[in-house]
Amino acid sequence: MAANRELWNQYRGTWEEFARQLDELQRLVEAGERDRVEGALLSVEKARLAHNHARDRLAAQLTGGIVPANGKVSEGTLPDEERVRKTARLLWEFSGKPQGTAENDWFRAERLVRSAGAAGG
């Protein structure tokens, strides 16, 4: 029972951190602080990965430890290419949708997704 409570607390804590990071990202965008958006996106992605991990651990505990062969209760993450695509689009939108930046946006997004995965996983 205490393990369940601890996992619930971790789950809630990671959700609150994820929400806080999203709020900070939105604040930066609204304030026009475009030079800080990339760092904020990385923080959001790290918080999302931590939350997904806490969610999966809680789900495994609640289901009696029944975990699929891949070791995860639910994937909960997009394939890397899709995550890069969505991140690149956010970078482009946050930059004001300039023409001719697709390649740079993609490479920046790849670095962010890779960095967040290395830090979170």
Task: Walk me through the structure.
By secondary structure, the protein is mostly helical. It has four helices and no strands. It has helices spanning 2-30, 37-62, 80-94, 102-120. Helix 1 (2-30) runs antiparallel to helix 2, helix 2 (37-62) crosses helix 4 and helix 3 crosses helix 4 (102-120). The longest helix is centred in the N-terminal third of the chain and has 29 residues, at 2-30. The radius of gyration is 16 Å and the shape is elongated.
Note the beta-strand portion.
under 5%
Estimate the global geometry from the Cα principal axes: elongated
Number of helices: 4
Largest sheet: none
Determine Rg (CA atoms, Å): 16 Å
What low-confidence regions span 5 or more consecutive residues with pLDDT below 50?
67-71, 73-77
Strand runs, count? 0
Overall pLDDT: 80
Secondary-structure element pattern, one letter each: HHHH
What share of residues is helical? over 70%
Terminal CA distance reads 27 Å
- How does the helix and strand content classify structurally? mainly alpha
Short description:
The chain has four helices and no strands.
Helix/strand layout:
Blueprint: H1 2-30, H2 37-62, H3 80-94, H4 102-120
Helix pairs in contact: 1-2, 2-4, 3-4
